[in-house]
Amino acid sequence: MPKSAGRSILTEMLSEFKPTEIVRHLDGFIIGQADAKRAVAIALRNRERRLALGEHPLREEIHPKNIIMIGPTGVGKTEIARRLAKMANAPFIKVEATKYTEVGYVGRDVESMIRDLLMTAMKIVRQEFEERYKEDAEKRTEERLLDLLLSGKSAAEKPKDENAVTSTEDDDEAIARDIFRKKLRGGKLEDREVEFRAPQAASPQVAVQMMAIPGMEEIENQMQNMLGDIFPKKRENRKVSIAQARKLIYQEELEQLIDQEKLKEEAIRRTENTGIVFIDEIDKIASRGGKGSPDVSREGVQRDILPLVEGSTVNTRHGAVKTDHILFIAAGAFHIAAVTDLIPELQGRFPIRVELKPLNKEDYVSILKTPKNALAKQYQALLSTENVNIQFENSGFEAIAEIAYEMNSRNENIGARRLHTILEKLFEKPSFEPEKYSGKDVVVDRNFVTSELGDIVKNQDLSRFIL
User: Fold this and answer.
1) Per-residue confidence band for 175, with pLDDT thresholds at 50, 70 and 90
2) pTM (predicted TM-score)
3) Are 215 and 107 in contact (CB under 8 A)?
4) 3-120+267-355 belongs to which homologous superfamily?
5) CATH code for the part of the protein at 361-466
6) So what's the pLDDT on residue 228?
7) DSSP-assigned states of every residue in 101-157
């Protein structure tokens, strides 16, 4: 691969992001967990460094340093990985290790995670291609709409310029076209109906569903895709509005402008060099001293995952994908099992281990008000649409944080997710009857929180089910 081709994949996206800047970006969405942020920032930057090597003989020998995140639920493990991928515009999928089964059992095979990752890459690359060809597609769409409008008019019906004098038939056509063009761009013809040969998608789904066996979703999806490619798209004459025709024609023009082979090649290249697979609940497939479930071997699933992490080739309907340089981030609470309960070969493929800390009261306060997508800001925005003005006081943040911390200590510790439950209950009344609060200020201080949630918190049996 030429040096420039290799660098173009990731360098253009991340050249401005140094590890410290990546951490600062993550700080805008996730509170604390500095060790985990540093680990993923370095891992992401190392990908760019590898690509920057160009034709260096060691480039293909440098593999990503996969990461295991250890920590309770709701402390930011998934969010760190998701925000990292979004920042890099990289293909990302989150999977649960428990959804996969050992080869030989009915269920999803582990290679399907790579197929899903490629589909994510296809969507990302397609959006980029669509943006690149948007202007050309719009121009071609406009010309086809003008053709439809003019083909539906007789010579006598075609509009003429009032100032026009004798002209040839071609001149009349050009004048009519210009008049229709102005009306199109002015939005005056959106409801006008035209006769259009619209594509009619083939429908092999029914046959596939009849043939599919419960638990064989992966095979069903592949059959759907295969039959979708084989069956030709039929067309039918029907009358549609200009607004409808524009959407259909625009999509057709995009399909013609986009080189599907180049799209697939770029998606595969992006998957192989920038893809991130987040495997959650990996602790639940640990062997735990050999005490596995009777029907599915935990160790078997680990051994099936191992080749992907080590580096292998997965065949997909769009081409072969090599997993050698895909970044794998695994996560688990590891309350019962330990990382050392994973098979040694798999442990060795996750050399970086970071422990995420449980959240304290101060963390909950920060989560409520500091991030760009803070929960407090979300509820303010939602209820502002009903003309309800939510105002948070520091004492209100502290009261909510104390309740979250107490509920997590008393019941199952679900981390920051507890805040969602508490705030939903806290704003139940203005959310259900916003007209009673319209035009008013709802001040969320300690007294407000106590009045709305105090009785529930005191009643331990009730709080277990509500908060």
Assistant:
1) confident
2) 0.78
3) yes
4) P-loop containing nucleotide triphosphate hydrolases (3.40.50.300)
5) 1.10.8.60
6) 55
7) --TTSSSB-TTHHHHHHHHHHHHHHHHHHHHHHHHHHHHHHHHHHHHHHHHTS-TTT
